[in-house]
Amino acid sequence: xxxxxxxxxxxxxxxxxxxxxxxxxxxxxxxxxxxxxxxxxxxxxxxxxxxxxxxxxxxxxxxxxxxxxxxxxxxxxxxxxxxxxxxxxxxxxxxxxxxxxxxxxxxxxxxxxxxxxxxxxxxxxxxxxxxxxxxxxxxxxxxxxxxxxxxxxxxxxxxxxxxxxxxxxxxxxxxxxxxxxxxxxxxxxxxxxxxxxxxxxxxxxxxxxxxxxxxxxxxxxxxxxxxxxxxxxxxxxxxxxxxxxxxxxxxxxxxx
Length: 256
Known about the structure:
Blueprint: E1 14-15, H1 19-22, H2 31-34, H3 38-46, E2 49-53, E3 58-60, E4 68-74, E5 77-82, E6 88-94, E7 114-117, E8 121-127, H4 128-137, H5 139-165, H6 168-183, E9 187-188, H7 192-199, H8 203-215, E10 219-222, E11 225-228, H9 231-237
Antiparallel strand pairs: 1-2, 2-8, 3-7, 4-8, 5-6, 5-7, 9-11, 10-11
Helix pairs in contact: 4-5, 6-8, 6-9, 7-8
């Protein structure tokens, strides 16, 4: 039997009223939480805080012991690896498809990378102990989390080949598509500097790539914002590693 864990407010983010409590019939945008039967979901959310995380805020840092998991229902987070050379490498993006803080149920006791909010993001923050108990005792929740882990493994594996073979402009188009898919928005409030960290490469290369995509009519970009105008054109600029969100897992390429 699942036992509720006493909760205390956790640092970081702005506490808000839970939109589900304001309208209990509203569907949950988060893929894992939205797939749960009502009984499992109600117990989980009774242990969670609904918070807003400002853009750029760090949710996890290397060597840190996970204190909570975060289930986004808006926005997206990026796991970044910081190299000794000063370079930053994007490892994965987490949006409404999953959660930040999965390591605590996979016997990984500390974070290996840095997680930052790419955009202003909101969602449910659940204490690590509550996450572990739910993973152990709730069948549907455990299945949803493991399915997400599988999708992440395939996605991250595809990044290895992509970073080695495909051009900077192809990777830029792919990351923009992934950000839109995972955040649920075609209007991305992100700077060239942050985008360069995600794509991997100098800032001027990102600017050149965005200018090219803008000339083709795929996007419009102003300072701090990128709007996807023509998804099909953007898709044609992306490499083969990009896979549409509804494509089944395991049929080749990455998945998100």
